[in-house]
Amino acid sequence: MACAPNSSRYTRTPMDAGSKRRLWLAVFAIFMVAAVVRFSFWTELRGTALDRWQRFDQSDMATYVEQARRIAEGDSFQAEPYHPYHSWQSGAPAAKWLEWYGPHRFHQAPAYSYLLAWLGPFAGEDFALVKALQLLLGAGSSALVFLITRHLWGFAAGVCAGFLSAIYGPLLFLEAQLLREGPAVFIILALLYFLLRQLEHGPRTARQRMLSSALLGLGAGAFAMFHEMASVVALVLGIVLVLGHGRAGARAAALALGMCAAGWLIGFSPLLARNLAVGAPPFSVSCRGVTNFVESNVADAPDGGATFAAPSAGALRILEDSKGNGWAAFRGVWNSHGGDLGLALANLKQKWLANWLSREVPDNTSFDFFREHAATLRFAPTFAVLFPLGFAGMCMVLFHGLTRRRPAAELSKRELKQQRRQNSTGVAATLPEDIAARPVASHLALLLLFLALCGALSLVHTVARFRMYLVPVALIYAGIAMACLWESMRARQFGKSLAIAAAVIAGALLQGAISSAAFPDGLRQVDYAVACKLSIEAGEVERVRGFADAARKKFPGDGTVQALAGYEFELKGSHELAREFYRSAQTLDPNSAMARDGLRRLQGR
Asked: Which residue of 36, 403, 424, 530 has the smallest Cβ count within 10 Å?
């Protein structure tokens, strides 16, 4: 390949003043570009329903807000945490769901709700301060992507990865919502950065190694209170620390793992203390793990569990029989397959492949819906761009890992001449450098984390915001592919340029094959209906007409959105507007029962 990591990057030689200046200028530039893009996007949302989605009572955002409200009112320990009852849960009564959740367990990892409660008095309308901080953290994530990629493959690759992260559409979209995914990505990147620094520039003394491992564990333990995915991250940290310190002997590896575990306990201790105080299971983080697993893995789950849907009859039966117990639920899921291992593996395969879909699968919100109403997102790259580039970057790293630099005496005259020509131009050497000089442990750590997260995501239904935890690693390898393609073209190594381009095309074709059966986009009538409802609550009649008109064009012949808007106006006592939207619904669908019944109710009013 035309591009290889710079071996000097992994030595302890200090950078000169010029290199340091260039490094921090790049960090500043990437951070600023990311911040400008993010706040430009948010500006497009401000003052519209798209910036008030947390008011939608069927969303996770509304759950965080309600939990935060109760904490702010003085119920700090939350002995009886808030559990929403959404429309998709109607297959069983609310009391039954509470029984399955178990006593005193939080609905989701609680740290985000506590942060909202603490920031609430300063957050302003619709938590504007929280969203602004999340956007700044998102800009920080782009800077971390640059630093990690530069550490792995050099300055050019870092710049490519950092700027791609700065304009990556799904990140902008989620960071502007009252969701924890944006901050969680930042925390994962921070943990990755310090882990890789320890692996490649690790402290020399045993005391420093122990302290560094403890600090990593502390961060992972604190993250465990923030997101359930932290258990996967902690597991990977432990494995990598054992492998990394194992070179110094079994005792060093055991000490590193022990200090990491001790740090994790300290980081997790606030939630541990709360759980013990209220009688919850000591290491409980969320009650949704068991129910999500059952809903997504039962034999009769739609699309093998890859598609989110209301719990099937089989899932409800398993939840009732297991009473929310994890092992009993696992046995129930296995028994639902009738011992057919092939069927169970086929369902897991469907969820595994769904991680690579080119589209953003909607959940609380729809990326495609927001893209329709925000110009910034329309021009931003998506996973359809990121996956092929990341796939090519991973292929290149594996190629370099399987090759070694031969001694000069073994090189042909043609290879020596080519190497001298490239060295004189300052372009990266053609032949891979000695594998011992490359950050092999760091790449193994990244790939292990990537595969572990893929495995965890294959146990639940696929939605875009869950896949966000794969994005940091994909961004790093996408930057490597972009930099290597550029450098190979500068060196006029067109054969290698074509090889890299072929890897990108192969990734795109692979993703296309996986996505062929997917829905064409993530636009849903519910998004237009929610936007109308939130606009009606704010008295924004013209915006309601705009959303209803957009729905009419997208779903011709279906008056559901217009009828729902009419119903919301009727509830508010705006009878003339209600009639307008009911009639619009009847024009689109003369058989609309909701519109017919609504007009009948309004007769004489």
From this structure: 424
What pLDDT, on the 0 to 100 scale, is given for residue 406?
A: 43
Contact call for residues 253 and 56 (beta carbons, < 8 A): no
Dist CA 362 CA 369 (whole Å): 9
Both tokens assigned to 358: 């080119």
pLDDT value at 433 more than 70: no
The angle subtended at Cα 294 by Cα 292 and Cα 297, nearest 5°, is: 100
| 327 CB neighbour count, 10 Å cutoff | 9
Q: What is the DSSP letter of 6?
A: -
As a whole number, mean pLDDT of residues 432-448 equals 65
Q: Extract the tokens encoding 184.
A: 């969680």
Q: How confident is the model at residue 12 (pLDDT cuts 50, 70, 90)?
A: very low
At residue 204, does pLDDT exceed 70?
no
CB 165 within 8 A of CB 23: no
Token pair in block for residue 4: 């290889």
Amino acid at the residue 52: R
Angle at 600 (CA atoms; ends 597, 602), nearest 5 degrees: 115
Report the alpha-carbon distance of residue 132 to residue 142 in Å, rounded. 16
pLDDT in tens, 15-71: 677 788 999 999 999 999 999 999 999 999 999 999 999 999 999 999 999 999 999
Would you kindly state where each structural domain of the chain is located, as residue ranges?
525-602
The predicted structure's pLDDT at residue 251:
85
What is the spatial distance between Cα 110 and Cα 118, in angstroms, rounded to a whole number?
Answer: 13
User: CA 1 → CA 416, 417, 428, 473, 556, distances in Å?
Assistant: 16, 17, 10, 21, 52
Helices (H) and strands (E) in the chain, counts: 28, 0
Query: Six-digit token pair at 159?
Result: 């710049």
Residue 520 has pLDDT above 80, yes or no: no
How much is the mean pLDDT over the chain? 87
d(CA 332, CA 101): 16
User: What contacts 10, CB < 8 A, 6 or more positions away?
Assistant: 200, 201, 437, 438, 439
CA angle in degrees (0–180, nearest 5) for 448-452-456: 170
Contact 534, 52 (CB under 8 A): yes
Q: Which helix (H) or strand (E) holds 187?
A: helix 181-200
**Torsion angle, alpha carbons of 206, 209, 210, 213, to 10:** -160
CA distance 307 to 357: 12
Q: What is residue 512's three-state secondary structure?
A: helix
User: The pTM is what?
Assistant: 0.89
Contact 236, 456 (CB under 8 A): no
The residue-averaged pLDDT of 441-468 equals 90
Which CATH superfamily does the domain covering 525-602 fall into?
A: Tetratricopeptide repeat domain (1.25.40.10)
Query: How many alpha carbons lie under 13 Å from residue 300 in its C-beta half-sphere?
Result: 12
For 12, other C-beta atoms within 10 Å of its C-beta total 7
Measure the CA–CA gap between 9 and 1, rounded to whole angstroms. 19
Reading the block at residue 499, the tokens are 């090889």
How far is CA 525 from each of CA 212, 369, 533, 579, rounded to the nearest angstrom? Answer: 50, 10, 12, 20
- The identity of residue 24, as a single letter, is W
Residue 180, CA distances (Å) to 225, 229, 578 in order = 12, 12, 37
Measure the CA–CA gap between 238 and 244, rounded to whole angstroms.
Answer: 10
